[in-house]
Write a structure and sequence with these properties.
Blueprint lengths: L2 E5 L6 H12 L1 E5 H11 L2 H12 L5 H8 L2 H7 L4 E5 L5 H13 L4 E8 L2 H15 L7 H23 L4 E5 L4 H14 L1
Helix pairs in contact: 1-9, 2-3, 4-6, 7-8
Bound molecules: adenosine monophosphate (AMP).
Adenosine monophosphate binds next to helix 2 and helix 3.
């Protein structure tokens, strides 16, 4: 299996690009944000708990998201996928460590981390813009967006250092046309 992590701050285009990459390379797309929103939609206990954090722009507790991705590797194999593209996970070093343990169990590993680089001003602009159509409450309020970026800086950026120690991180310019960024990601994926 060729498993990758699509990394980057909120609004860097991870969701858009992951959806294109999964089709192009026959990957299972795992977005913990989408999984959580699905739980909220269903009105499950997990969703109700997660919503309180998401509405404030805070990260959901590690145990909750780690529990949600446990079956990913079996699903990918059952569906004949070439690997998994993780989008929005892992977001803390504890999640990265849990993912390592799970992969060891499943006899697989992370091939690389593709990291989208976008400056802060562009991020806020994009998220507010997305909020006009996405219906996501955490995309509409500037204080919540600032909180999400703050959570990213303090808790998620250290995840890049965690993988950089094994020389697994490739940075890709995340500003430009969707297609140019996609081409750059495809090349980086193939080079891994
Ligand atoms: P996203 O759709 O990836 O932007 O995620 C939306 C929100 O879901 C985040 O702001 C967090 O509150 C929560 N979330 C998604 N993925 C994770 C994760 N891996 N760890 C903790 N919280 C997460």
């Amino acid at each position: 299996m060729k498993n990758i992590i699509l990394f980057g701050p909120p609004g860097s285009g991870k969701g858009t690009q992951a959806a294109m990459l999964k089709d192009h390379f026959n990957l299972l797309h795992i977005s913990t944000g989408d999984l959580l929103r699905e739980e909220i939609r269903k009105g499950s206990v997990l969703g109700t708990e997660a919503k309180q954090y998401m509405d404030r722009g805070e990260l959901v507790p590690d145990a909750v998201v780690i529990g949600m991705i446990g079956g990913s590797f079996d699903t990918a194999r059952e569906e004949g996928k070439e690997g998994i593209i993780f989008d929005g996970f892992p977001r803390t070093v504890a999640q990265a460590e849990a993912l390592d343990r799970l992969m060891e169990d499943k006899d697989t590993s992370i091939a690389g981390v593709l990291s989208l680089v976008v400056d802060e001003e562009e991020l806020t602009k994009r998220i507010l813009n997305r909020g006009l159509t996405s219906g996501r409450s955490d995309d509409s309020d500037e204080a919540t967006i600032r909180n999400r970026v703050q959570e990213y800086r303090t808790k998620t950026e250290p995840v890049a250092s965690y993988y950089a120690a094994n020389d697994k991180v490739r940075e890709i310019e995340g500003v430009g046309s969707i297609d140019d960024i996609f081409q750059a990601l495809c090349k980086a994926f193939e080079d891994l």
